[in-house]
Amino acid sequence: MSTPSPLHEVHAALGASFTDFAGWNMPVRYSSELAEHRAVREAAGLFDLSHMGEIEITGPEAAQVLDYALIGKLSAVKVGRARYSMLCDADGGVLDDLVTYRLGEERYLVVANAANVGVVASALVERAEKFEATVTDRSTEYALIAVQGPKSAAIVRAVSDADLESLRYYASMPATVDGIDLLLARTGYTGEDGFELYCAPEQAQQVWRTLEAAGEPHGLLPAGLACRDTLRLEAGMPLYGHELSARLTPFDAGFDRLVKFEKEGDFVGRAALAERAKQQPSRVLVGLTGTGRRAPRAGYAVLGPDGTTEIGEITSGALSPTLGYPIAMAYVSAECREPGTSLHVDVRGKALPVEVVALPFYQRS
Fold first, then answer.
1. Ramachandran angles phi, psi of 27, nearest 5°
2. What is the top-level taxon of the source organism (predicted)?
């Protein structure tokens, strides 16, 4: 039985189609995923992200816990700021990619992907054992709503007391919306400016309706998981279980910059990642673009210039609503990594031409 979101009644009233996602019953679309996608690119979209997990780390050595548990240097994050990082196992494989907010000198909030909340919480509890800190899974205490798109700031400004001019990208602050206290963050997963609002589940419907009303004059639409996936793909953002997994290290996915070997002390996966950093990768993550209307999909084989030799696999693919042509991310043989390289994708038995391109496919102006 899937867990309903605190906003399930709202979604049902809006005519949403639902899907099971990581054990949650979530809206996949409302009217048209194409219309929802375009609303985010041109105006704003309203997302329910309550399936995400929130794990709190508190105590005098909370920063040291995260420096040991994650590959990044979270102790360097200032209060009010956030950082993208990864949780790896001892072999360097990625267990999850995370956003961590520093809410106070001794308080952090780690936001995990829905399918990995249990793994992340358990790993953090285990890795915190030798430190003076407490790890608490707060996932049931939060609902999460996102407003994404070029009009998002105008919408949030209309309903909030927050000073948005001082709220930088990857930062957060306490705020109120319609008299409700919440955490307001300027983060997102769409490639657009946007905000994420963390509130109590019982207050989520009021926050949603307030944002929906404020957004109506700006062209805001409720947006489901389907368009969230095409938006993040256009922005070249990885999805756990596709571009990232326990079988892959951050180096495989091109996230070398996240591994902070210079931080003091040991961290889980350091030795394995140090060895991996010395090696040339056999496969690398690249962007691919095609022509026509037939899009590569996850799991399709990537073929070499000859159109017959298998040299990789699609991890995510779709017909880009913004660009109007097929796009995909794929792991391919390292010698085929250069932008401009001509390859093929096996789409249901037919070798269709694609070209290697630099990521992201789309970048807001």
1. -70, 125
2. Bacteria
